[in-house]
Known about the structure:
Elements: H1 18-32, H2 42-60, E1 71-72, E2 79-80
Antiparallel strand pairs: 1-2
Amino acid sequence: MRQSPTTNRYNQSHYRDPTAYDAVYNITEAAEHKPKPSSITKEQQQVSELINIIKQMLHFGGFELIGRIAIKSTKTQRIYR
Length: 81
């Protein structure tokens, strides 16, 4: 089992409480290892939002998308699929 100096394996009645210990340990570990900031660029976010809008328009018009959407940026010439 995991060891952590900041948590106690025993409850207030001095009985082992592995469930509480594991929960506190996991929360402590998650707080220490925060996820890295997203590396999604502004342009990638815009493409994602645009594709969602296109899908919504198709849905409201009574259609569905059956293939991939490919979008090319006029500024960067990058192709998004």
